TrEMBL record:
<feature type="domain" description="AMP-dependent synthetase/ligase">
    <location>
        <begin position="49"/>
        <end position="238"/>
    </location>
</feature>
<protein>
    <submittedName>
        <fullName>O-succinylbenzoic acid--CoA ligase</fullName>
    </submittedName>
</protein>
<dbReference type="InterPro" id="IPR045851">
    <property type="entry name" value="AMP-bd_C_sf"/>
</dbReference>
<dbReference type="Pfam" id="PF00501">
    <property type="entry name" value="AMP-binding"/>
</dbReference>
<dbReference type="Pfam" id="PF13193">
    <property type="entry name" value="AMP-binding_C"/>
</dbReference>
<dbReference type="InterPro" id="IPR000873">
    <property type="entry name" value="AMP-dep_synth/lig_dom"/>
</dbReference>
<dbReference type="InterPro" id="IPR042099">
    <property type="entry name" value="ANL_N_sf"/>
</dbReference>
<dbReference type="InterPro" id="IPR050237">
    <property type="entry name" value="ATP-dep_AMP-bd_enzyme"/>
</dbReference>
<keyword id="KW-0436">Ligase</keyword>
<feature type="domain" description="AMP-binding enzyme C-terminal">
    <location>
        <begin position="293"/>
        <end position="363"/>
    </location>
</feature>
<dbReference type="GO" id="GO:0016878">
    <property type="term" value="F:acid-thiol ligase activity"/>
</dbReference>
<dbReference type="InterPro" id="IPR020845">
    <property type="entry name" value="AMP-binding_CS"/>
</dbReference>
<dbReference type="InterPro" id="IPR025110">
    <property type="entry name" value="AMP-bd_C"/>
</dbReference>
Amino acid sequence: MRDLAVVPDDPAPLIPAVRAALDGSGPAILPIAPGGDAAGVPRQVPLPVAVVVRTSGSSGVPKSVALSAGALLASAAATESALGGPGEWVLALPGHYIAGIQVIVRAIAAETEPVGLPAGPFTAAAFAAAVLGLPADRRRCTALVPTQLHRVVEAAEAGDPTVREAIRALDAVLIGGGRLPAELAERAAAVGVRVRRTYGASETAGGCVYDGVPLAGVDVRIVDGEVQLAGPVLAEGYLGDPERTEAVFVQDPGRRWYRTGDAGTWDGERLTITGRLDDVVITGGEKVSLGLVEQVVQSLPGLGAALVVRGSDPEWGEVPVVVATAQADLESVRAAVRGSLGRAAAPRRLVVVPEIPLLASGKPDRVALAALAAG
């Protein structure tokens, strides 16, 4: 067994703690957010474990994902290869989430020091200053969630010269933590952001599929419509939850697979995610994928950041509900969705909110969204 130390989500103590956890000179670590706690997490973990990522996810179900140094470093090495070599990294994501941890791991593997942002809310100005503070003679990279990218793009579109310079200086901006709306992707490309779309989870040591293509060593298969992943990046499992570990990490002869819970297609070269398997509503006797409805809605003018969640209806049972920060004509939205996916998929309601509720990771808070749709 190995000791587990709780480390605050602050680059100053966290970066050396990650380094020591990886090389074995220190204990395994559990990064926690400000004001967070480690209730229920054991203070000793199996020897392979180097980092524990504590997350409730967007569904509100708590998990303690146990990751080995081997999995974290395999992911970092594969990312380095995919990006064309080692680089300098800006740490713009919380260090208690896998995306933030992996920025630190990639920098350590490249023998560089990640540059963090000042405490407080993310701003395009602070981000640009951090980027421009990196050495100019090496590859410069970062990882953002779509919400952060949106703020950077807005600042660049408004003509901020520092943000524009920072964007041009970045060799790669990894975008994960949720679907990247097509409208935002187009706007980002127009101002010069070199976006790499990533797909993965804490259970895969972060993003392991870039722009639909698996990283080196990662395998993909589809079983009953579910995306499953294998490779050296997989977590050891969930601490204190052998039943969930056994259900999610399945062993086939000679291969261990992670059941993502996502629906998708795989043509042997490229993976396409179509939504969550549990994001299906049965409305009027027909199954409707909320993820597919969301893709259509986000393609409409002014609704690039809109989300689609399940709502109740006295006549139809469950129905798609659009949650957006801008008003839109519901009948036009329904017509667009109906034309692409059929009558049953047309959203029944549109809820306008001042802002989309987010988790600390920057992902949409689906639990809060469902409550807004119900209200």
